Amino acid sequence: VLYIPAAIVAGLLGLLASPSVLGLIPEGVIAELKTWPGWLIAVVFAGMLLERPGRPLRESVKLAARQGIMVWIIVLGEITLGVALTWLFIAGPWNVPLSFGQLIEAGFAGGHGTAAAMGEVYEALGFSEGRDLGFFVATVGLIFGIVSGIVYVNIGVRRGWTHAGDVRIPVISGLENRHETVPTGLAKTRSEVLDPLVFQVLIVSAAYAVGLGVYTLVSSLVPFVEQFPLFIFTLLGGWLVRAGMTALGIGDLIDPEGVRRICGLAMELLIVSAITSLNLSAVLALFAPVSLLLLAAFVWVGVCLLVIGRRLLPRRYWFELGILNYGMSTGTT
Fold it and tell me: Which of 5, 51, 83, 223 could pair with 259 as two cysteines, CB 3.0-4.6 Å apart?
């Protein structure tokens, strides 16, 4: 009914079975799951620029200028609002660093993967609770974004904000039509030689490896780069692998749908492992200030959709683009 993704449900069930609640999952398993989000988000980013070639810069800027400005307003607003609230009302009473205020952006626009990556940065800053708080904010943001987004879509349709007029969204079961199956990818190798999915996994792995290599090289030359999340470099690795394969005339061997499925698998596992390994005691200890951040975030993303977006985005499609931004700014970019 609420369109909550299965990964969120699975993660919440895992959290219920974790040592901090029912104790059905051993501590060793939770310790292992804690390590998954950091490298899984690097896999997701490895496929982003690998999956498809980019548009020419001039064309991209022309198509996306106002949309890009709107995104920056939302994201910088999440950071500014969070840091300001932390500085004025939270830092003193709860003894947290100002970086606590970045949890809105890390969890909402960033999501579970960014929360994992930022968790390593928080750890280096002596704020070890940041990782679990980021996962909590990301989980709340994803659920809130979906549920409130459905409400906003219904309001938008009823008030005629959509360019297409009355839009009917069919009730779904989560299953594809059994009589019209959808292919999940195209084979680029003969299965007798190498399974086509394995071939795409190898390409994504190459992107990951190149990114890891660049990270290792740069951090050895510039030590402070070690504090940067790995996914920045695997994103670059994906671009380099695609550029290299294109230059060699074999870019067509990349199957975009196959790469998307691999990254989708990584994202599903990331969300489940992040929520399952969430340290509830860290969240409960700072529940009041986190709730204040969340309340401010709920208001801000609503203002961005209904007020700023309506004035800044192209008039014919302001609501369609705005609701995309709304999902991005609450659920993950």
Answer: 51
What is the secondary structure of 95-139 as a DSSP string? T--GGGGGHHHIIIIIHHHHHHHHHHHHHHTT-TTHHHHHHHHHH
The phi-psi region of residue 126 (left if phi > 0; otherwise alpha if psi is between -120 and 50; otherwise beta) is left
Burial of 168 (0-12, 13-18, 19+ CB in 10 A): exposed
CA distances from 261 to 111, 209, 256 (A): 19, 19, 9
Amino acid identity of residue 227, one-letter, is Q
Cβ 276 vs Cβ 11: under 8 Å: yes
313, 67 contact by CB (below 8 A):
yes
pTM of the full predicted structure?
A: 0.85
